[in-house]
UniProtKB/TrEMBL annotation:
Its main location: cytoplasm. This is Ribosomal RNA small subunit methyltransferase E. Transmembrane segments: none annotated. It comes from the Bacteria. It is found in: Cytoplasm. GO terms for biological process: methylation. CDD domains: RsmE-like. Belongs to the RNA methyltransferase RsmE family. It comes from Hyalangium rubrum.
Length: 244
């Protein structure tokens, strides 16, 4: 069934009006018309059966059925060191498919990419659209939050209290990610730190450990930064019974 992302208030009315980009997308991309059925999801975990009731010059009206909610899942955040090129977009898209709840693009000591405030704002808007579209395609009813780029330690300090902080450390050989993840309480939030192409500086690792972080390894294979993030998410999804 056709799906459409529409942010809704906590108690939506039985009919909603769409204008602007969403009207255009519904009529000219999805090519729906009066009477067409679709599914609406609001990004918070709710989905609604919907139907196009009226097409007007400036808006489209949809009727909504009762809300459906998915069972709660563990919140896994990714603190991804800003990589070069479009690698972050890959992490955002595929990370959404693999169940990540939030993304923190972070500046690190070895990050090559530097974003000025205006550029950072533009990129955050683009990244948000990428995760919205990925959520629609993979049939998630929630949409991960994409935080504006910020320094690594600021992002780590901003995590929800009680979050277990795991750091992919290329020099760590004793603690597998799977072992550290199994030690987390069921449904307890987890955050994963992944360095950029050059990895994390030892000073950054020490600072993260002072915040309670634990260094972990994915094994003996050498993975690119964008591959490491996705491989780690796949491991955690498997251990939580959501994959494989």
């Amino acid at each position: 069934m056709v799906r459409l992302f529409v942010p809704l208030p906590p108690e939506p009315s039985a009919e909603v009006a769409l204008s602007g980009e969403r009207r255009h997308y519904l009529l000219h991309v999805l090519r729906l018309e009066e009477g067409s059925a679709l599914e609406v999801f609001d990004g918070t975990g709710r989905a609604f059966d919907a139907r196009v009731t009226r097409v007007e010059a400036q808006e489209v009206r949809l009727s909504l059925g009762p809300a459906r909610t998915a069972p709660p899942r563990r919140a896994v955040s990714v603190l991804q060191g800003l990589p070069k090129g479009d690698k972050l977009e890959w992490v955002l898209q595929k990370g959404t498919e693999l169940g990540a709840a939030a993304f923190y693009p972070v500046a690190t000591a070895r990050s090559v990419v530097k974003l000025e405030p205006k550029r950072a704002e533009e990129r955050t808007a683009r990244w948000t659209k990428i995760v919205e579209e990925a959520a629609r395609q993979c049939r998630r009813n929630d949409v991960p939050q994409v935080h504006p780029p910020q320094p690594l330690l600021e992002a780590a300090r901003a995590l929800t209290p009680g979050t277990t902080l795991l750091v992919l450390d290329e020099e760590e050989t004793a603690v597998p990610l799977s072992e550290a993840f199994r030690a987390c309480a069921p449904q307890a939030p987890v955050a994963l730190v992944v360095g950029p192409e050059g990895g994390l500086a030892r000073e950054e690792l020490s600072a993260l450990r002072s915040l309670g972080a634990r260094g972990v390894t994915l094994g003996s294979r050498i993975l690119r930064t964008e591959t490491a993030a996705l491989a780690a998410l796949a491991v955690m999804a498997h251990l939580d019974g959501e994959l494989g």
